[in-house]
Amino acid sequence: MSKDLQPTVDPTKMGLGRSIAVLTSGGDAQGMNAAVRATVRVGIYTGAKVYFVHEGYQGLVDGGENICLATWESVSMMLQLGGTVIGSARCKDFRTREGRMMAACNLVKLGITNLCVIGGDGSLTGANEFRTEWSGLLVDLVRAGKITEEEAKKSSHLNIVGIVGSIDNDFCGTDMTIGTDSALHRIIEVVDAITTTAQSHQRTFILEVMGRHCGYLALVTALACGADWVFIPEMPPDDGWENHLCRRLSDQRARGSRLNVIIVAEGAICKDGKPITSDQIKKLVTDRLGFDTRTTVLGHVQRGGTPSAFDRILGSRMGVEAVMALLEATPDTPACVVTLSGNHAIRLPLMECVQVTKEVTAAMAQGRFDDAIKLRGKSFENNWNTYKLLAHINPPDAKSNINVAIMNIGAPCAGMNSAVRAAVRMGIIQGHSMLAVHEGFDGLAQGQIEPLTWTSVSGWTGKGGSMLGTKRTLPGKRLEEISQNIAKFNIHALVIIGGFEAYVGGLELVQAREKYEEMCIPIVVIPATVSNNVPGSDFSIGADTALNTITSTCDRIKQSAAGTKRRVFIVETMGGYCGYLATMAGLAAGADAAYIFEEKFDIKDLETNVEHMVEKMKTTVKRGLVLRNESCNSNYTTDFIFNLYSEEGKGIFDCRKNVLGHMQQGGTPTPFDRNFGTKMGAKAVLWLTDKLKECYRHGRIFANTADSACVLGMRKRALTFQPLAELKEDTDFEHRIPKTQWWLKIRPIMKILAKYDIKLDTSEHADMEHVIKKRSFLGK
Questions:
Q1: Whole-number Cα distances in Å, 360 to 200, 238, 363, 375, 386
Q2: How far is Cα 222 from Cα 749, in angstroms, rounded to an integer?
Q3: How far apart are CA 744 and CA 739, in angstroms?
Q4: Within 10 A of 65 (CB to CB), how many other CB atoms are there?
Q5: What does the DSSP assignment read for 107-149?
Q6: In what helix (H) or strand (E) does residue 451 lie, and over which residues does it extend?
Q7: Distance (Å, rounded) from C-alpha 223 to C-alpha 462?
Q8: E strands present in 266-409
Q9: DSSP per-residue string spanning 403-426
Q10: Residues with Cβ < 8 Å from 171, sequence gap 6 or more?
């Protein structure tokens, strides 16, 4: 929506007199239900009527009871369910003009002129064809006497918006499709389980994952588990790969590894286009090397199970954006698809995206594999380049004579070890000597420093916590000892992986450069904390794992109330003063309220929330979930809020409280945190290598400029390096949070989905972008 229109639009009246239908089509994907729920509730919020179309396009053709009015309560308790509650089907009838005529007739009779389609590229292409034919279909229906001239006039135009739901992540124009993250969760659970048994028996495991003609699932799995080899359709192995593969597996065993993992995408091919199967690879490894080899084909396990927190939030955000796009569309607007770019929901013309998606297939068919990888997008290309670099087994003979030290600072979190592993291996590939600093800045001051080798970080990606050991101590009081040890161990560069203390500690080292020349070395801080409160990055390593822990716990808590009814749960989350976990878990678990420090609240707000809960108990949904960030208010404590709800809800509902505590910091890292940590660790060391060349003068390294000490962070659509000193202005040091936080803009979505009558700021909603322009960005 254009910003100049904003003042005239009241979002709660945008949909008056309009009808929206929502359907899921093609293969199911976890998170589709979140999108359906958001589409229904936001549609109702805007004043529109919303209809379910059961069984995908088949339901649209058959009509009758398949198209029924949705209510607010009808989408309750859907968030945590996998698959699609409204059903999906492959539909031959819709491919015929007669079938589409029947579908059009059913929509016209109900006055539905807005259609939200959740599915893959085939489903979305079908929707666009339907829209293109719409006026012709109406003419034929009037001629056949199926609808009146008046009905045709009222429904003269059909608006279409697509949401991509597919575990394959094979749709160009979006960073992630709904269901991909959850599928990765299923795959990584299996990889972790198989790793333990493979190590016991010194086995080679070949895992075949889904993805059709897209290698995304296979590639990210290989990155996230440190696989020895990955086969993907976009980049077939070179001729003679059989010898190379066997050599690599033998080398790994010779280095002391007890297992080998090979990941195969189901669409994997040779350069000549012939398929590469897991059985073929098993035969090769067994015959040539005599290794005990097993294959596991994961199949439909990947489609099943509960959606991850990411997929629920993605589905919810896409559903909101889809409703806005439908209601803002004009007859001239092309059919659009809502997609994710970085952390922004954007709109792209549907057929441009479909066209680029088809170009990937064409490029692969013509053997233009480099083009295929570029067309898949920046994220895919980055994953592939990182995997290729880290898959090197033979470090260079030429040493750089550079020593890079790595340390963890602050509270432990899942994914820290992935970053350490990637940094160590990338450093060794660059010819550097890598040093582990144990126990944070204390260890640096006490000289708890030892070399790290390629094999010493094997298997670290799947381990939670901090293998190096970590402490919250800042360096300020021990600068003398730290500078002596930097000199003693001849440290030329420093990688600091941690939370807010890592950022502040980095700043203290930079400030100490004036007094201690030893501190004049390049420094990079990688944000890793469950709180997601490090300035300079939209995401921190570890936050996704914590978010999934909170979300799954809230699911269980809500389920426990299903039998008792009329129960409200007050759940306290971690995060320090940062409300990221409480807000995002609120969105992912379907909370009624989430109290955070960044959004001030008073007794009137609490009163409003309690009254809202009382009203909710009159509906069929007789349970409530309230999240509270641990430091949101020193007076309105978790006990206070629990007591308030208990007192005001007497006779209407009863209350229970849960403080989740340190379980949020533990557990094995999620696929996102493994992948994110791996990419951050690798990128940090590549940057340090370039910086060291810049700072090498007169036979020694001397780095004292602001840009030689940076935070590596995810900003909107890219990983960027920002000088520590420049981030000071955007930091609230007292409360240990950045002054600007992107996720605050999506808090209203949580409130609207919980049926609060608030105004959704539609001024942020994007005009349609173009995938062709975007591709130039992606192809860089």
A1: 41, 20, 5, 6, 21
A2: 35
A3: 11
A4: 8
A5: HHHHT--EEEEEE-HHHHHHHHHHHHHHHHHHHHHHHTTSS-H
A6: strand 449-452
A7: 11
A8: 293-297, 336-341, 344-349, 403-409
A9: EEEEEEESS--TTHHHHHHHHHHH
A10: 120, 121, 164, 177, 337, 339, 353, 357
Which amino acid would we find at residue 249?
Answer: L
Token digits of residue 33: 């239900």
Q: What angle do CA 670, 675, 677 make, to 5 degrees?
A: 95
Which residues does the annotation mark as catalytic? 168
Distance CA 473, CA 481 (A): 14
766 pLDDT more than 80 = no
Are residues 234 and 373 in contact, defined by beta-carbon separation less than 8 angstroms? yes
Q: What's the N-to-C CA distance of the chain in angstroms?
A: 29
Segments of 597-717 assigned E as strands: 623-629, 654-659, 696-697, 700-701, 709-715
* CA gap 686, 382 in Å, rounded: 13
Looking at 144-179, list the stretches that DSSP marks H as alpha helix, in order from N- to C-terminal side: 149-154
Tokens matching residue 587: 């969105």
Nearest-angstrom CA–CA distance, 449 and 721: 27
674-725 tens-digit pLDDT = 999 999 999 999 999 999 999 888 778 889 899 999 999 998 778 999 999 9
Cα–Cα distance, 184 to 457 (Å, whole number): 23
| pLDDT tens per residue, range 54-83 | 999 999 999 999 999 999 999 998 999 999
Q: Which residues contact 607 (CB under 8 A, 6 or more apart)?
A: 648
Is the model's pTM score more than 0.70?
A: yes
266 closest CA partner among 224, 313, 216, 315: 216
Report the alpha-carbon distance of residue 294 to residue 508 in Å, rounded: 52
pLDDT for the residue numbered 4: 39
**Averaged pLDDT for residues 179-195:** 94
Neighbouring residues of 563: CB distance < 8 A, sequence distance ≥ 6: none
The H or E element containing residue 311 is helix 309-328
The pairing of beta strand 433-437 with beta strand 449-452: antiparallel
Q: Specify the length of the chain in residues.
A: 780
Structural tokens at position 138: 């109406």
Task: Give the contacts of 40 (CB within 8 A, at least 6 positions apart).
Answer: 22, 50, 52, 70, 72, 74, 75
Residue 389 tokens read as 């670099």
Q: Give the Cα separation of 179 and 32 in Å (integer).
A: 8
Cα separation, 362 vs 364, in Å, equals 5
CA distance 380 to 675: 12
Q: Which helix (H) or strand (E) holds 450?
A: strand 449-452
For residue 340, how far is the Cα from the chain centroid? 10
R_g of the chain computed on alpha carbons: 27
The CA-atom distances, in angstroms, between 377 and each of 123, 234, 383, 506 are 22, 12, 10, 34
Strand partners, 550: none
Q: How many Cβ atoms are within 10 Å of 730's Cβ, its own excluded?
A: 14
Query: CB–CB of 572/628 below 8 Å?
Result: yes
Average pLDDT of span 607-625: 91
Asked if 66 and 53 count as a contact pair (C-beta separation under 8 A), the reply is yes
The secondary structure of 284-304 as a DSSP string is: HHHHHH---EEEEE-GGGGG-
Angle, helix 671-694 to helix 543-564, in steps of 10 degrees: 160
Judge whether 413 and 545 are in contact, CB under 8 Å.
yes
Token code pair at residue 680:
């951050």
Quote the mean pLDDT of the chain: 92
- Name 713's bridge partners: 720
For residue 390, what is the enclosing H or E element?
Answer: helix 378-390
Q: Give the C-alpha separation, 494 to 489, whole Å.
A: 12
Q: Which residues contact 178 (CB under 8 A, 6 or more apart)?
A: 29, 30, 31, 32, 34, 35, 118, 163, 164, 165, 166, 311, 314, 315, 318
87: helix, coil or strand? Answer: coil
CB atoms inside a 10 Å sphere around CB 193: 11
Task: Tell me the two tokens of residue 383.
Answer: 């994953």
Residues in Cβ contact with 274 at an 8 Å cutoff, skipping those fewer than 6 apart: none
